[in-house]
Amino acid sequence: MPRNNLLNYRSSLSGHEIARSSRRPPQRWLPGNGFEHKDRRIAERWRNGISNAPGGHRPFSISVAADAAIAATAFLCHGQEQLQQLRGNAQPIPFLTMADSGRVDDLEHFPQYVARQIGFGDISECPQLGKLAYDYVRKTHGFEDNIFAAFSSEPDAEALSEKLMDELDRCILGYFAYHWKHAALMISQILDADIKPAGKLKSMVMEATRKQRFERVSRNLKVTRVFSTLLDEMKAIGIGGSFQEDVGYKEVMIPAAHVDRSPVLLLMGGGMGAGKSTVLQNKLLKEAFWSEAATNAVVVEADAFKETDVIFRAMSSRGYHNDIIQTAELVHQSSMDAASSLLVTALNEGRDVIMDGTLSWEPFVEQTIAMARAVHCHRYRMGPGYKIADDDSIIENYWEPIEEDDEEEGNRKNLSSDQNRELCRCRKPYRIELVGVICDAYLAVVRGIRRAILMGRAVRVKSQLMSHKRFATAFPKYCQLVDNARLYCTNTIGSPMLIGWKDGESRLLVDPSEIAWLEKVSGLNVDADNVHEVYSTEGPPPALLFRSPEPTSVWEDAVLCASRVANQLALKQALHLTSSFPH
């Protein structure tokens, strides 16, 4: 049965907003550490989501401006030692307590969080909801059928199922909006939900021996990895039809499709989790040119090498999810090298190339574009890359021309200057296109955490935010170096929105209201620990920054949504009445 999925841009959300506030006892927010309660009994009541209102019902506020401003002010912290009083809307925040040692003592589990959002005091009031919540966030096989079965006795079972899945999507956006410094714990709690929890001693031992375990696996699979990566490169470029032996200077290999046109290098750029794959699938591959050219194009993507890396797969298969970030970092450089090798090989061959990456490091991107401009006359290879010299100066040389050996040089000298020029004309210069993708960095973080749960590949939130900041800052410069540029925004529900474009020598044309996100993202805070710290503390909070005709934030549209309140009440009543959820 088809359904809308909010995280995949298919959900229909109300344009109205509402912020909910609960009359909670005084509590203090420790930046990055959660709440500190003076009264243990009150703390337990807060943890279970029970308000002091009569009957345990939570009052609602329709004042978005007041509640959002107060909540945002409470979270815009300026130091780890500064404590600020939290007032207003604290409902979406997962409960977190810290031990005196600085380790996490308790982090509210996702099912408990979902139950609290719907209005239950504890997940024990609806135990099956816990399993449904875990299955949904992990996309376990048959999770939709299980949700439909839970409401099968209700006359409006289909509508209730849609409401529950919609609420689970919003809970995902709320749950992963906080405590980013403990993202690995959030991920491991969800992945290990069906596994007997390891003792604290075992966890400490595993952390202490992580480096030794990684070194042992890397040493044992070193040779296997070399051949496996080489095979992946050969498959990606189509070695059977692309590489030919005994090709001399008079036998320049030109793909048949390129006889009448220049080959194309498409640079897909944007921070991690920006939605580049969505733009590629929903926009570019549906265009007339790429729908035909993509069949023979070489796709260069470091993440693809990372997922097939034998060391990455060996470490991931061991099931210790606390290593999920370190495992990805272990194979990061090797996957980048494999992608670079594939890129320079494809460009040397004159193939159409789609390069999918963050494009966050300006020197690398600039040198890559310069190489593509000259590769029709000179073959290239990978350079030494980023190096620090003896005098502490930084040398960056990512590509270098291939020096001709004596035999090849002799053959080349036997050609006249006219023949050399004709040789260069045999291969047309590359046409370089840039497609940038931006989004609310908070939304990208949520996507990244969700991807880690589904695919087992995670990145540090700080690295993710840094990639968004750097790309947004560099995008205007990149536009001056390419032949064609487009910028998409994936904040909107539905198809990605084109908000900027440039063709030829023209200037970058933009959508005046939506392009504000580019400047916004370029100034984000890479040390943010939650949604309220992502952007500058100056001015109004994120939920109020963009008002019509300017775009609203995803947080406001999805989490502080008017329709959500009614759906939560309907779900709570249905879950109480449904026999599948005894109370």
Quickly name the level 1 CATH class of the largest domain: Alpha Beta
CATH topology of the largest domain: Rossmann fold
Estimate the mean pLDDT confidence: 75
Radius of gyration: 27 Å
Given helix and strand content, the structural type is alpha/beta
**Main sheet?**
7 strands, mixed
* CATH-level-2 architecture of the largest domain: 3-Layer(aba) Sandwich
Strand order within the widest beta sheet: 7-8-6-11-12-13-14
Question: Level of helix content?
Answer: 40-55%
Q: How would you describe this protein?
A:
It holds the Pfam family Zeta_toxin. Keywords: ATP-binding, Nucleotide-binding. InterPro entries: NADKc-like, P-loop_NTPase, Zeta_toxin_domain. With about 575 residues, the protein is an alpha/beta fold. The chain has three domains: about 90-200 and about 565-580, no CATH class; about 215-240 and about 255-360 and about 430-555, P-loop containing nucleotide triphosphate hydrolases (Rossmann fold, 3-Layer(aba) Sandwich); about 380-425, no CATH class. About 45% of the residues lie in helices and about 10% in strands. A hairpin with a 3-residue loop joins strand 1 (about 30) and strand 2. It is globular, with a radius of gyration of 27 Å. It starts with about 25 loop residues before the first strand and ends in a 6-residue tail after the last helix.
